[in-house]
Amino acid sequence: MGIPFRKLHGLGNDFVVVDGFDVPIPDALARSARDVCDRHLGVGADGVLLVARSDKADAAMRVINADGSEPQTCGNGLRCVAKLLGDHNAELAGREALTIETVAGVVSCTLLYGAGGRVARVRVDMGAASLERASLPMRGPGRFIDDTIHVDGAEFRGTAVSMGNPHLVIFAGSEDTAPRELAERYGPMLETHAAFPERTNVEFVHPRPDGALDLAVWERGCGLTRACGSGACATVVAAVVTERHAPDTPLEVHLPGGPLTITVSEDLGSVLMEGPACEVFSGELPADLC
Q1: Which of 248, 253, 172 lies closest to 212 in space, CA to CA?
Q2: Are residues 117 and 137 in the same domain?
Q3: pTM of full prediction above 0.85
Q4: Residue 231 lies in a domain
Q5: Before 137, cis peptide (omega within 30)?
Q6: Which has the closest alpha carbon to 48: 64, 71, 35, 67?
Q7: Same structural domain for residues 85 and 38?
Q8: 66-79 per-position pLDDT tens digit
């Protein structure tokens, strides 16, 4: 028999989501994530999200990237899983608050319902950010804040932030060179830079005149994506610690797929992300694909 799934996205960052609350998910599905995510021969997605019961939270989320790697967390994925649970799960549907276990820890989600009683937006407390290199991990001692990194003959100033997964945030966009162009060109090399033994996500940022941020993300294991929730969070953390933005103040981050609202506490102990989650369709994965 096939495996039921739902296709969801957060600002165009799309996922095949499988609810394993009541039916065990075959181990082969995680190994087949690359085939499932193939946009020509599979369903097509940036990743696969596997949902299961948890003894620490209301549910657990496992993330498999399109290249088969497993990140510690995923901001857009968390919003999609919260929507799946709030809309469809027999035990959790209709809840206004949920906790979800990830490899990076347990996060709290507030579900905001819209038309038809369906989840329209989700506010996620992504927990604490860390600036210690060891938490990413990144080679070298201490912290990497507004420091210099070189790649392919270019020099950038960046800030390394862990949101449970690693990020390198670079304020480098301009009217002449959009963040997307920089991410597309330098993202692959920075992702695999020798300073990051487990690779890193890379964010290129350009402030707007109104104070909002334009952001493009080269996502570890996925490449250039339409949105990255944890990347938007890391970007605002970097803006706060480099005094580009005040703490405890919501900031709108514009990604190619749309905006997210991020609020970072002064002590970096809480990073709130709010944005939409959308269900596209449902289907069944054939047994021979898994």
Answers
A1: 253
A2: no
A3: yes
A4: yes
A5: yes
A6: 64
A7: yes
A8: 999 999 999 999 99
Task: Render the burial of 208-223: b for 16+ CB within 10 Å, e for the rest.
Answer: eeeeebbbbbbbbbbb
**Range list of β-strands (E), 172-228:** 201-207, 213-219, 223-225
Mean pLDDT across 262-288: 95
Query: How confident is the model over 123-164, as pLDDT tens digits?
Result: 999 999 999 999 999 999 999 999 999 999 999 999 999 999
Backbone angles phi, psi at 235, to 5 degrees: -65, -45
Residues 115 and 37: beta-carbon distance below 8 Å? no
Helix ranges (DSSP H) in 18-106: 27-31, 33-37, 75-88
The domain that contains 246 carries what CATH number?
Answer: 3.10.310.10
Under 8 Å CB-to-CB from 287, ≥6 apart: which residues? 1, 2, 3
Domain total of the chain? 2
For 159-215, write each residue's pLDDT tens digit. 999 999 999 999 997 767 899 999 999 999 999 999 999 999 999 999 999 999 999
| Joined tokens for residue 230 | 């944890």
147 lies in the same domain as 261:
yes
Question: Which residue range is the domain that position 73 belongs to?
Answer: 3-127+276-284
Of 258, 289, 290, 286, nearest to 274 by C-alpha is 258
- The radius of gyration computed from the CA coordinates of the chain, to the nearest angstrom, equals 18
Handedness of CA 113, 66, 168, 51 (dihedral sign): positive
Do 112 and 215 belong to one domain?
Answer: no
Same domain? For 183 and 257 the reply is yes
Catalytic residue numbers?
Answer: 74, 228
**How many CA atoms lie within 13 Å of 223's alpha carbon, on the beta-carbon side?**
7
Judgement on whether residues 137 and 264 belong to the same structural domain of the protein:
yes
229-241 and 75-88 helices, crossing angle to 10°: 130
- Please compute, for residue 282, the number of CA atoms within 13 A of its CA located in the half-sphere on the CB side: 8
